[in-house]
Amino acid sequence: MNSKKNVQQLLPGLEAPEPTAIPGVSPVKELRKIDGKRLDGMHENYMAPEQRDTWYIHTVLAQCFLPYRDPKTTHWMKENGDVSIALTAGIVKSPEKGFYEAGLPYGVRPRLFLTYINTQAVLKKSPVIMVEDSMTAMMRELGIQPTGGKNGTIAGFKEQITRLAACHFRIIAPDRVKNTMRHINAEPFKSFDVWFSNVPEQRTLWPSEIVLTDDFYNNLVEHAIPYDFRGLKLIQNNPRAQDIFLWMTQRLCRLSKDKPLFMTWQMLYEMFGGTLATMKKFKQEFRIALNAAKIAYPDARLTEEENGFRFYASPPPVPKTKIAVNKPVG
Fold this sequence. Notes:
The protein has a domain at about 5-235. Helices cover about 30% and strands about 25% of the residues. The protein has helices spanning about 5-10, 35-40, 110-125, 135-140, 155-165, 215-220, 230-235, 240-250, 265-270, 280-295, and strands at about 30, 55-60, 75-80, 85-90, 90-95, 100, 130, 170-175, 180-185, 190-195, 205-210, 225-230, 260-265, 300-305, 310, 325.
């Protein structure tokens, strides 16, 4: 991602909110009415401990999603309208296996970890995130009970995060000016240090420090979407519901009251279908996941119609009061 361009320039067809400021960066000022309307989904800076349920996710990650199940391949592609995301499994090295393909990340664990990393980077105002010492505490915070052993949650969590850290992200979008397809290398991670235990049964690789790329970090600073993590924890075991929840979080609060958004079943399938083979199966799965997402986001306003769903302007899950505005540098 190019930090000098906004998300809409990088991803035509994917709407992005106006840049939001990052907590703690600058003083807070009252919004003008027009700014308040444009930034209706944004939330004020939170610093008090009781406000720690506000988490952040990059706007692109709230619109382009990881696989729901193990694709059992080293490549995975997903289309969202005329924009596509392509994932390629990365190579890692361990003392026992040497070089090997880590596989592609999938399911709830890498999704939860991505939002944790995004939140830590936003709050600490740093692209460097230390994760080794806080692994079990982080798992508990994410709603995952840490258990050891070969089949415990710790081993599975480590594997998914190693897959995520090693994965190569590419976004493909049309450049309508040049009439070409632009391929954007969009890896969020610049580097990661891999730690491994000396205990044989706990030899699963685990990133102890993750450094975000400058482009991703700077773009995250401009386009962080605040959301209520308590809602996401309610649906932590349903990755499709998580995706719907985060998508509605960044989209519904920006709809005009007189212009609802209609999504056909085909459009919804392209966004949330995963590898489901039939539309009939997808409709069943989507309705279940949508009902779960509505529990996490009870103020979401939508109706099902014959050919899809109509979404209406809704209050943001994190109420807006003020917005923090960065002061110009220099």
